[in-house]
Amino acid sequence: MRRTLDLFYGGLMAGAALAMLAAFGCVMLGIADRQFAWGLRGLDAYAGYAVAAALFLALPGTLQRGEHIRVTLLLQRLPATLQNLLEWWCLAAGSLLAGGLAFYACRLVWVSRQTGDVSQGSDATLLWLPQLAMALGCVGLAVALLDAALSRATGRRFFVSSGGEAARVE
Fold this sequence. Notes:
Blueprint: H1 2-36, H2 43-57, H3 59-64, H4 72-76, H5 80-115, H6 128-154
Helix pairs in contact: 1-2, 1-6, 2-6, 5-6
């Protein structure tokens, strides 16, 4: 199961990287379009969709690497028992919030698909397509937070060190 979850988080991170490349490609194509007047429509919207997809798809992998912003200044100064209790509370609250976010993100995709909702821009994109990346990232974050809580409960390590101390600036 650990290997499957790690592959899932890694796959989402790869998707985030591809989305960033797509955003870059859309921006560069938009610049070329303005120079050569090709008349391509919706590139700004597609770049925005790609950036949003990258943000959401990277959530679980970023959590696993401990790169999310955490306020440890307070935690470090607490006694070990209170620190442990507060970390449990954070994992539980985060799991509940991420689960609710995932539910409503999936529901948004479903409603947009059922109603045939399209963007109001010149691209007229079916909105459920870019919303799908958001929903997948939210589900991934909920799974990652539950995974972190279960790993903590069983004494296994969830957070993977990124190797650099610069990432620990909080």
